[in-house]
Amino acid sequence: MKTEGIIRFGAADDAAGGTSRPFSKAVRAGDFIYVSGQVPAEAGEIIDGGIVAQTEKVMGNIIAALNLADCGLEHVVKVNVWLDDPRDFTSFNGVFQRYFQDNPPARSTVRSELMVDAKVEMDVIAYKKQ
C-alpha cells in the first residue's frame, strides 16, 4: 500500500501476531527500508533450539522481509538486537558475523526480557535508492 511516498510490504499475518498486533513486515520511506522486529517464529510458534538456531531463523525472517522491498542484507545500515540472556552474546555474534562479513552495519545489542518466549529479536534499517 502506498501513502505519500510510503510503501508498506507484507502486512503481518496470524503467524506473526497480526490479529492482535497489526504491523507491516517492512516499510519503505524514501530510500530507507524499516523491517519490523523479527523473532524466531515459524507457523506462529517460536522454534525450538538455542540461540544459534533462533538467530539463524531470525536472520532468515529478516532476509524474507527485505526481499519484499527488493533489498538484501548488503543494504542494511543499522541493526537493533535484543537478547534475553547476555550469556548468549558470543554464540549470537558468531551467527551474526557470518551474515555480515562483507558489509557490517552499525549495531546496538541490549539485554531485554522479550514479549514472546524467544532468545533473540532483531529489527533492521536498510538503505536503497529508489
Search tags:
alpha+beta; 60s Ribosomal Protein L30, Chain: A; seven-stranded mixed β-sheet; two-stranded antiparallel ribbon; 36% strand
Walk me through the structure.
This protein is an alpha+beta fold and 130 residues long. The protein has a single domain (2-127), classed as 2-Layer Sandwich (60s Ribosomal Protein L30, Chain: A). The chain is 22% helix and 36% strand. The protein contains two helices and nine strands. Mean pLDDT is 90; it is low at 16-20.
Instruction: Tell me the Rg in angstroms.
Output: 14 Å
Spatial arrangement of strands, main beta sheet: 1-2-3-4-9-7-8
Assess the beta-strand content as a share of residues: 35-45%
Number of strands: 9
CATH topology: 60s Ribosomal Protein L30, Chain: A
Question: If you average the pLDDT, what whole number results?
Answer: 90
CATH class: Alpha Beta
User: Which residues sit in consecutive blocks of at least 5 with pLDDT less than 50?
Assistant: 16-20
SSE topology sketch:
Blueprint: E1 2-3, E2 6-11, E3 24-29, E4 32-38, E5 41-42, E6 45-46, H1 51-68, E7 76-83, H2 89-99, E8 106-111, E9 120-127
Parallel strand pairs: 7-8
Antiparallel strand pairs: 1-2, 2-3, 3-4, 4-9, 5-6, 7-9
Helix pairs in contact: 1-2
